[in-house]
Amino acid sequence: MSEDPFETLEELLSAILGPQTARDAVAALRSSGIDPERLASMGGMEELARMSPGQAMAMRAQLSQMFAASSSEPVNWTMGRDLALQRAREGGDPTVTAAQAQAIRQALTVADLWLDTATEFMPAPGGREAWSREAWLTRTMPVWKDVCAPVAQAATRALSEALAHQMRGLGEAVGEEAVGEASKQAGALEAIMRTMAGAAFGMQLGHAIGRLAQEAVASTEVGLPLTREPGTALLPANISAFAAELEEDEEEVRMFFAVREAATARLYAHVPWLRGQVMSAVEAYARGIAIDTDAVEAAVAQADPHDPEAIQAALAGGMFSPQSSPEQLEALGRLETLLALIEGWVQVVTERAIAAHLPRGMALAEMMRRRRAAGGPAEQVFAQLIGLEFRPRLAREAAELWRRIGAESSDAERDAFWQHPDVMPTASELAHPEDFLTMRRADKDMDAEMDADLASLLDGTLGYTDAAREADRADQGGRGERDGGPGPDGPGAPGEEA
């Protein structure tokens, strides 16, 4: 490599970003007034200059993968998927046997029979399948894109704004004349920063989802349907590991998760607005994402610039932080409440369905609640990727609310609340489940009274009592007689001349 640090950097970027983009980026750095000796003293530049051709090619290949994000997408999804598959295969990914597939299909079929006694919702359409960890990743990755893309878009947009701010600060520091040429090349620098952010987020996504693939037991996690197609699926290898860890009977554990999976699938299949509401809440939450630029600068300053994983770790360590604006808090509350209502309903319906069939069913349900409260792998993934932390208290309150509605009225009335988002329980109502039905029925009676008053207003009878109506009719009859109208004995009284 060249002894000139700028030329060394340009050679490296040229292999990654292309000659023109590399020239633009290095030209911006030269014009910004950066001292070549200072650039040469930066961590890793001396090592770059001493690299052998083979080492340089290996590093270029590694960085090329890191920067291989499409300019039209905020995340390097290819890198994320590859890293997730690599992580999921750690320790092996057993192939699903024919016997395991048959056991899963049978469990999901029986689960639907049990659920028929616990909910008004019919079984979800689609197949009943057994997946390996790799199959889980392949089938769920499109939905992970849907969930993470809004946050990634907000993050990269904020990163671009931070870059513009840095350019303005540079202009104030070295003078407009010195930074003029660099400003012309800001687009190239912005593209590089966007690519780095997309690569960092892709790597973060891959590590997190790959870890979840090692423990996920179904196609739904924390109330989210992770596939776009209807149907149900379980992962026999992870179910076996879960049962062994808890020292529980594997068949009973399989049936427990089959009922949970089938219940969640029914809810999403027969509540058409639900998926859209969840995704819109994620998008609204993502709009408030901000970047802690001070934390990023401090982290990157300590990273090895020629080590992609070190760069990724530096960016992921402090890049994204939720903004506590009123809009952000409102979106977060709406999302948390909706996911709690889903999880609470699934808990209640599952407990009802398994009560007469699984001796250890209630113990397994309690284990699941504790796992959620402690922050299982799925909860950790969401906290890491989009900053969303689940509150177990909300799920407990939601379960208690659904349980009370079913006990005090019926399963049909309980499930009817899913007909439209406007009639769903609110966050404040979750805190007082004992008063929910009383208040809702009072509101319904008040609405009926207002509708009756409106109808009376339109037909001119508003405020009339039954006695007033009778008196009015009598008065109308009396006026008719005085005006020569028909009296009780017909037209004209007896003895009167016509």
Characterize the structure shown:
Helix 10 packs across helix 15 (308-318), helix 10 (186-213) runs antiparallel to helix 18 and helix 16 packs across helix 19. The longest helix is centred in the first third of the chain and has 42 residues, at 133-174. This protein has helices spanning 5-17, 19-31, 36-41, 45-50, 53-66, 77-88, 98-115, 133-174, 176-184, 186-213, 236-246, 250-270, 274-286, 293-301, 308-318, 326-354, 361-374, 377-386, 392-408, 411-416, 427-430, 436-459, 466-482; strands at residues 127-130, 220-221, 224-225, 231-234, 289-291, 320-322. The chain has 498 residues and is mainly alpha-helical. A two-stranded parallel ribbon has the order 1-4. The relative contact order is 0.09. The chain has three domains: 5-69; 77-172 and 180-290 and 325-408, no CATH class; 434-464. It has 23 helices and six strands. Strand 2 (220-221) and strand 3 form a beta hairpin. The protein starts with a helix and ends in a 16-residue tail after the last helix.
- What is the percent of helical residues? 55-70%
What oligomeric assembly is this protein in?
single chain
Give start-end ranges of low-pLDDT stretches. 38-45, 173-184, 491-498
Strand-pairing-aware structural class: mainly alpha
Largest sheet: 2 strands, parallel
Mean pLDDT: 74
- Strands of the widest sheet, in order across it, are 1-4
Number of domains: 3
Order of helices and strands: HHHHHHHEHHHEEEHHHEHHEHHHHHHHH
Biased composition (Gly residues): 485-498
Protein name: Zinc-dependent metalloprotease
GO molecular function: metallopeptidase activity
Biased composition (Basic and acidic residues): 467-484
